[in-house]
Design goal:
By secondary structure, the protein is an alpha/beta fold. It has eleven helices and eight strands. The structure holds phosphoenolpyruvate (PEP).
Length: 251
C-alpha cells in the first residue's frame, strides 16, 4: 500500500508571520492524521520560521524549487543542501509555472531531482500537459516524454522514494478539475511508464494529482486506484480547507 501524501504549494503567498499563524491553526487540526504524509511548501523566506513552528508535529517542510548545484555564483538561487539545513524533507521541481514562466525543461528538472536526492531530500517531480496539448489528444505522449526526461538522472536504488505530481496545466488555478476517471487514466498510464523504467519500484512511487483540488472534490479523486495524494495550490492557503483535504474520506 502506498502511503498518501498531501502537499501544499503556497507559491508566492504568505509572509513569515502569516506562515506562523497558519501553522498555529493547522497543526492541531491535523494532529490526528497519522496515516498520511502532510507537507507544506512556503516561499523560501518562510522556510526557516515555518520549520520551527512545525517542529515536533506530523507536518513536513518542502521547498518550491532548488538549484542543482551545491554552491557557487548563482545569484538568486538556493542549493539543496541549504534547504536540508532549514529542515526541508521535500522540494517541488518542474512545476508547470517554472516550466512555462521561467523556461525550465526536463533536463534541468532531472538534474534538480538528482541533486535533491544527493542532499538527502525527496523531489516532488511535476508533469502535465497544456490545454492545447490536451485538446489535441497528446496527453499521454507529453506525460510520457516529461517522465522520461525529468526522471532521467534518478538513482535507480532511490526510485521508489520519488514523488510524481500529475498536474494538467489547464486545471491549475482555473477551478477546472480533471474528472476522477480521466485523472485515473493518466495516473495508470504514468504508473505503467514508471514500471517500465524502474521495474517493481514503479508500484511504490506515489503519484499525486494536482489541479484545483478542493475539499469538495478530494474524496472522489483519492478514491482512484493510482491517485496517491494531491498537490494543492489555492485551497492549501486556508488551514481549515487544507485540513479537510488531509482528512479525505477513505472509500
Ligand atoms: C499547483 O499549483 O500545483 C496547483 C495545483 O494549484 P491549484 O490547486 O490552485 O490549482
Amino acid at each position: 500500500m502506498r502511503r498518501p501524501i498531501l502537499a501544499a504549494n503556497w507559491k508566492m503567498h504568505k509572509t513569515t508571520g502569516e506562515a506562523e499563524a497558519f501553522a498555529a491553526s493547522f497543526v492541531p487540526l491535523v494532529a490526528d492524521a497519522v496515516d498520511v504524509d502532510i507537507v507544506l511548501a512556503p516561499p523560501f523566506t518562510a522556510l526557516d520560521r515555518l520549520g520551527r513552528a512545525l517542529a515536533g508535529s506530523n507536518v513536513m517542510l518542502a521547498a518550491q524549487n532548488a538549484n542543482p548545484e551545491e554552491k557557487g555564483a548563482y545569484t538568486g538561487e538556493v542549493a539543496p543542501g541549504m534547504l536540508a539545513d532549514v529542515g526541508c524533507r521535500y522540494a517541488i521541481v518542474g512545476h508547470s509555472e517554472r516550466r512555462t514562466l521561467y523556461g525550465e525543461g526536463d533536463a534541468l528538472v532531472a538534474r534538480k531531482a538528482a541533486a535533491l536526492f544527493a542532499a538527502g531530500l525527496v523531489p516532488i517531480v511535476c508533469v502535465g500537459e497544456s490545454l492545447e496539448q490536451h485538446e489535441a489528444g497528446r496527453t499521454f505522449e507529453v506525460v510520457s516524454a516529461q517522465l522520461a526526461g525529468s526522471l532521467a538522472e534518478l538513482p535507480r536504488d532511490r526510485a521508489a522514494e520519488v514523488v510524481v505530481a500529475y498536474e494538467p496545466i489547464w486545471a491549475i488555478g482555473t477551478g477546472k478539475t480533471a474528472t476522477p476517471e480521466t485523472a485515473q487514466q493518466v495516473h495508470a498510464f504514468a504508473r505503467e511508464q514508471l514500471r517500465g523504467r524502474f521495474g517493481a519500484a514503479g508500484d511504490a512511487i506515489r503519484i499525486q494529482y494536482g489541479g484545483s483540488v478542493k475539499p469538495d472534490n478530494v474524496d472522489e479523486l483519492m478514491a482512484q486506484a493510482d491517485i496517491d495524494g494531491a498537490l494543492v495550490g489555492g485551497a492549501s492557503l486556508d488551514p481549515e480547507a487544507f485540513s479537510r483535504i488531509i482528512h479525505f474520506e477513505k472509500r
